[in-house]
């Protein structure tokens, strides 16, 4: 059924009246990217330095292309079909695109492949200038808002920008990617969306694919391992701020999702993947809203009481979950490092200096898109500010 629908979408796209490619290119020449949200990300010097460092490491360690041996089979005439043009994204050799704000859509495009993960459609695109990701999302605004928070808290996440499918760049993007995709999946998954995310591509391993040997290298007793655990603790603070339980079950009653934590190739730097804001509405769910804030307040008080050497039960649970996922135990020392990273956020609110005005400004930037971005209700500055205020309440001198 799914294959038949994709085939129908591909046939419909081929049969439909589309603007000539030359027209789309001409329209794109006059298109200027004025993306305030992109400017916010690139203005963060620390994040920019980490992006550059990761790219350097990935380029240095990416395997080199090897020449393919000529086929010994005798040549046979064969009509080319769409199956002959199937592209396979090379996850091992792909290098991140250095400027996803300046993609040359009509030059050096190698191919596009859909990931089997992601219901809305996640596509890996490779070009002569590097690789990037195009993602359709029903929670686009929520993801964007969480990524802005991550940057403010010193949690690394892939850079992104929003492309409106109906503007000159969006129309050219869809035409080029659809032409590269004989399966019709681009048109089927992205064709009906008003906006998509373009995200930086990073080579790495999600926590779900990290075994005990790799975990001992990434999260072990070395200085790098300590740094990674502290970074993971900062990510937990981000998740509490966003009420994002879809990662590690610190204060949430679920199994967690190891697919939403990534360790960058070779270096093992911690990367937040697919973070979201999941606000609780004080008007429609006041009891649940108050209970969540009380849960955070209790966690922070436990951390304050435990000091530098006391293991807090919620973080012990994270330690046990990491062991379940990887079969490697970070030990009590590892738990304390997670707590240290969490407190680098929770106990330093004055230094980080997020304001309610800033949180509202981000939401207003998302509101400016037309048509409206999906998931706007989840990008809630008031909810995030309420949680941030609890951090300030328990650590007033932070």
Tally of contiguous helical segments? 15
Report helical residue fraction: 40-55%
Q: Give the integer mean of the pLDDT values.
A: 83
> The biggest beta sheet, please?
5 strands, antiparallel
Q: What sort of overall outline do the alpha carbons produce when their principal axes are compared?
A: globular
Q: Which strand order do you get reading across the main beta sheet?
A: 1-2-3-5-4
Radius of gyration: 23 Å
The count of DSSP E runs of length 2 or more, i.e. the number of strands, is: 8
Distance between the termini: 56 Å
What percentage of the residues does DSSP assign to strands (E)?
A: 5-15%
Looking at how many chains there are and whether they match, the oligomeric state comes to single chain
Structural class: alpha+beta
Can you walk through the features of this model?
- The protein has 398 residues and is an alpha+beta fold.
- The chain contains 15 helices and eight strands.
- It has helices at residues 2-15, 21-29, 36-42, 45-61, 140-153, 168-180, 185-190, 212-219, 223-242, 286-306, 313-326, 331-346, 349-352, 356-367, 381-394, and strands at 109-114, 122-127, 130-135, 160-164, 195-200, 204-206, 261-264, 270-272.
- It is globular, with a radius of gyration of 23 Å.
